[in-house]
Structure formats: C-alpha cells, structure tokens
Amino acid sequence: SYVLTQPPSVSVAPGQTARITCGGNNVGSKSVHWHQQKPGQAPVLVVYEDINRPSGIPERFSGSNSGNTATLTISRVEAGDEADYFCQVWDTSGDHQRVFGGGTKLTVL
Amino acid sequence: VQLQQWGAGLLKPSETLSLTCAVYGGSLSGYYYSWIRQIPGKGLEWIGEVNYDGSSRYLSSLKSRATISIDTSMNQFSLKLHSVTAADTAIYYCARSYDDYILSWGQGTAVAVSS
Q1: Which residues of A touch B49 (CB under 8 A)?
Q2: Are strands B10-11 and B56-58 parallel, antiparallel or unpaired?
Q3: CB pairs under 8 A between A and B
Q4: pLDDT in tens, B5-64
Q5: Which of A40, A64, B5, B95 places its Cα 20 to 30 Å from the Cα of B106?
Q6: CB proximity B92 to A under 8 Å
Q7: Is residue A98 within a helix (H) or strand (E), and if so which, with residue range?
Q8: Going by DSSP bridges, is the β-strand pair B44-51/B56-58 parallel, antiparallel, or unpaired?
Q9: Residue A8: in which H helix or E strand, if any?
Q10: Residues of B in contact with A103 (CB under 8 A)
C-alpha cells in the first residue's frame, strides 16, 4: 500500500514560518490534504487538494505539492498552532483506501 | 453539518465493537461516510466507508471483521468490528468525506478492549 512519510516533529518560534513535509512516491500526482489535531480534540481539515483552505481556516495556512514531497506551510506561527498535523491522500494503486502520514508534532517555542 | 457519534467504550476480547454516527444539518447524498481510528500516541488509520447508496469499501487488513452500514431514514451510519482484541483499543472517529478528502470529523469515541 501507499506510504506517506512525515518528520515526527518540527519546532518554530512565534512569528516564524513552519514547513511540514509529507513524502511519498510521486505524491505530486495525487491530491494531498492536511488535518490539524490539537491535544484531546478531533482532527480538523486545514488544507485540501494541495492548496485550498476550507472556510474559517486562516490564510496563514498554505500548501504545495510537487514531485515526491507535499508541504504544509504555516506563516506567522502562533502559539495556538501547536498541534499534530497529518497529511492524507486517496490511494488508488491497489485496494482503494485513504492513507495518512504518521503525523508531525508542531512545537511553538 | 455536524457529526455526533456514540457506542460502547469497554469491550472484552472476542466481542463486537458497535458505533453509530448521526449526521445533523445536511443531506447524506454526495458524500462518503468513513470510520477512522487512532491508537493512543500513534497516527490515524482509515477503517472503511460507505456512501449514500450503501456501497462500502474497507482497509484490506480489516475487511474480514468490519461492517459499515448506512440508514438514510435516520441520517446515521454505523461501524461493527467483530472479534475484537486488545490491538483494537483506540479512539474511533466517524467522518464525512468528499471525493479525495475527509471533510469533517466526529468528536471521537474511546474504545478499550480488556478482559
């Protein structure tokens, strides 16, 4: 089955830019979606189809996807952005299934 | 649209996990209705999903034990996972999916399997 690889952790100071990567074989040919999960809460979709934001998600959240890496970029990071972030794709290579990356813990220093 | 889920939180090995999720504020048509679980401290695992007309698909490794169904008259969908073991201890989420992506999530139900 398709594998998505994320770094376990990313740390950034408030006001700086955080970049969280999601690696996969030719992931640029798929649509990548990103979910934010704060402690004790259910995940929330923050970016879909590589670059789009659902209503209510700040413009500080953006995405890109090319080659073997998709990236979630959070500009002007705030303390409230501290959370786990998961990338997700729809894998049609074998049994059709939704696949998640292992998640990245964003720490705001 | 809001998703509200419920079900038993403590099971013994070999029992059947049963969870239900109600969809409030929107029609069921046009979406897939998914179940996803998260083992504490670990990542997310998609279990499977069903659409409005009852067509379902499952994670290969759980296909033999999982059944996901939909009740359009009640605006609800359900998960049954048979013959549970300690390895099935997790937080289970229902979710509404559109096309490639998971659009919204339920609040989660913690399920523990212990003798």
Answers
A1: 98
A2: unpaired
A3: 62
A4: 999 999 999 999 999 999 999 888 899 999 999 998 889 999 999 999 999 999 999 999
A5: A64
A6: no
A7: strand A97-100
A8: antiparallel
A9: none
A10: 43-44
